[in-house]
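Class prep. Write one:
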Amino acid sequence: MAADRVRPVTEPTFVTETRTAYDTVADSYAEELRDLLDDTPWDRAVLGTFAELVGGTGPVADLGCGPGRLTGHLASLGLDVFGVDLSPGMVDAARRAHPGLRFEVGSLAALDLADGSLAGALAWYSLIHTPPERLPAVVAELARVLAPGGRLLTAFPVGDEHRRITNGYGHDVALDAYRLQPDFVAGLCTAAGLVVEARLVREPAQSVYEKTPQAYVLARKPA
């Protein structure tokens, strides 16, 4: 595990804050959200479509995987999937919950993956802690690791607000979160050389976790 915890001496404050916050809440987060997918049929439908499109064509990365709940779900749909997360605490939780799957500590801004190595990349609510002005570089990095024909699926809350979060899952934390507009995210994908295949906006579920509409954007790297 020591190698997992090595990181640059200097890094942006938002990265440090995000890692620290998710390390703090990792076990509580894993327990509280463990069965959330059972109550979100739109999420299951979109993930199922993604799995059908990329299944059997190569490895898939769940980027910002948290405790691995979606990594495990995609594996159950037949994908060759592994998880990457900024938080060592989340990776520890994922390894405990899914000992048969691979999880690594890493940053979406600088993935330890070869160019064109993935058939699919999932960024499920994992873009929301990066300041919007820095997202073009992150989405370009996600596009870099996709093979021709590979697909990127993102999900995020809709809006224009920047929120400072000071409490989460019963713990004191300090990190920023950004709601995003589907056109903005689709534009990031296009600028990174991807072709947007679908975008969907749904109303918030009857859940304490959703206060605004939620969006999905699916994009493909041209063959």
User: Anything to note?
Assistant: The CA atoms of residues 10 and 174 lie 19 Å apart.
